[in-house]
């Protein structure tokens, strides 16, 4: 079985018949022009040594070399070997706020939907890091354990929604503790947490949770989503969320809490005016440069590259074409005795 590194390049082979057609047309035109200007009886005198068969052979060699070059560029592969591939990276847990306040639409279409889109874009750029997902509101739980299977992670991400955690509120401390629990071992220099929220913490001791993360050496990068001016929280029926007194609740971004949390753990706070850009820059500037460790190894099948064969054929054909002259070799005149 032959596999191809770039199978689409095989489509370029369609130019081979086009080249043949052009060469045939050029030969006929050359012959027609010769017949027009030189009488047939004199052609043997004007061009006595030109061998039509040699000309056709040279043209065939060029066409064959062109086809061989296209095959070489397409990268034929056959035969394979097993190779152990070691994957290195960091352990990254992404904790996303799923409380009602994430339905606020000061970030379109709403805070939660925009955060999920940004995380999806980020995961598609990861190059070997293990990633896990934690959902939190009034409590927290691991939605997806650390994994190298980004497809499974994205399925868990798509399942995130407001109401996935029945208990209302925003417990940043619980989210941080659950994220630390999802990180295996205690090698904090290889681990990081990204916390995406509007920062309105209503439960737990955030400072104590940040201290626990700092003691483990885990850096927490906080991403604030929303605006300091705040926005009303839509609910079913086209109305807005109200408190017990009937007053409409406006959710505001609490940057101070998120800044303190990041500072305590040695991380960075980012205000995600554009979540996609903010997460990409956060990863590129801080997390990608973290010390990596081996996360596992797998046996992978490596195809043997065989492009050298058609390339060598093309080289031999072109050299032969250059050495082959159009004219017949002249016979050496016999010397008088």
Can you put this structure into words, describing what you see?
This protein has 337 residues and is α/β, with parallel strands linked by helices. It is built from 10 helices and 11 strands. It has helices at 15-37, 43-46, 52-74, 111-123, 150-159, 172-182, 206-216, 255-265, 275-287, 308-323, and strands at 3-4, 76-89, 91-97, 130-136, 140-147, 191-197, 219-224, 231-232, 250-251, 269-271, 293-305. Helix 4 packs antiparallel against helix 5. The longest helix has 23 residues, at 15-37. The radius of gyration is 35 Å and the shape is elongated.
Biggest sheet: strand arrangement: 5-4-3-6-7-10
What's the helix count?
10
**What quaternary form is this?**
single chain
**How are helices and strands ordered from N to C?**
EHHHEEHEEHHEHEEEHEHEH
Could you give the distance between the termini? Answer: 66 Å
Sketch the major β-sheet. 6 strands, mixed
**What is the percent of helical residues?**
40-55%
The rounded Rg comes to 35 Å
Whole-number mean pLDDT:
84
Q: Unreliable segments (pLDDT under 50, ≥5 consecutive)?
A: none
The class by helix and strand makeup works out as: alpha/beta
Strand-residue fraction? 15-25%
Q: Give the overall shape, derived from the CA principal axes.
A: elongated
Q: Care to count the β-strands?
A: 11
């Amino acid at each position: 079985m032959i596999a191809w590194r770039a199978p689409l390049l095989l489509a370029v082979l369609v130019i081979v018949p086009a080249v043949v057609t052009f060469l045939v047309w050029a030969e006929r035109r050359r012959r027609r022009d010769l017949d027009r200007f030189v009488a047939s009886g004199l052609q043997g005198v004007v061009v006595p040594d030109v061998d039509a068969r040699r000309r056709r052979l040279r043209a065939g060699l060029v066409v064959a070399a062109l086809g061989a070059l296209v095959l070489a560029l397409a990268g034929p592969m056959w035969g394979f070997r097993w190779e152990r591939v070691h994957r290195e990276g960091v352990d990254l847990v992404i904790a996303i706020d799923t409380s009602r306040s994430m339905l606020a639409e000061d970030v379109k279409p709403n805070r939660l939907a925009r955060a999920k889109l940004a995380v999806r874009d980020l995961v598609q750029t990861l190059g070997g890091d293990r990633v896990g997902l934690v959902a939190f509101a009034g409590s927290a739980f691991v939605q997806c354990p650390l994994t190298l299977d980004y497809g499974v992670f994205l399925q868990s991400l798509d399942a995130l929604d407001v109401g996935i955690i029945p208990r209302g509120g925003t417990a940043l401390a619980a989210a941080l503790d659950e994220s630390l629990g999802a990180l295996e071992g205690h090698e904090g220099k290889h681990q990081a947490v990204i916390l995406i929220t509007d920062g309105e913490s209503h439960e737990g001791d955030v400072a104590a949770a940040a201290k626990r993360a700092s003691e483990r050496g885990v850096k927490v990068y906080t991403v604030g989503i929303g605006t300091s001016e705040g926005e009303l929280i839509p609910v079913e029926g086209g109305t807005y969320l109200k408190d017990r007194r009937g007053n409409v609740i406006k959710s505001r971004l609490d940057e101070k809490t998120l800044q303190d949390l990041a500072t305590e753990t040695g991380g960075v706070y980012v205000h995600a005016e554009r979540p996609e850009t903010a997460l990409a820059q956060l990863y590129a500037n801080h997390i990608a440069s973290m010390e990596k460790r081996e996360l596992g190894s797998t046996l992978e099948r490596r195809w043997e590259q065989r492009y050298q064969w058609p390339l060598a054929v093309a080289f031999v054909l072109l050299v032969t074409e250059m050495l082959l002259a159009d004219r017949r070799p002249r016979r050496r005149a016999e010397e008088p005795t």
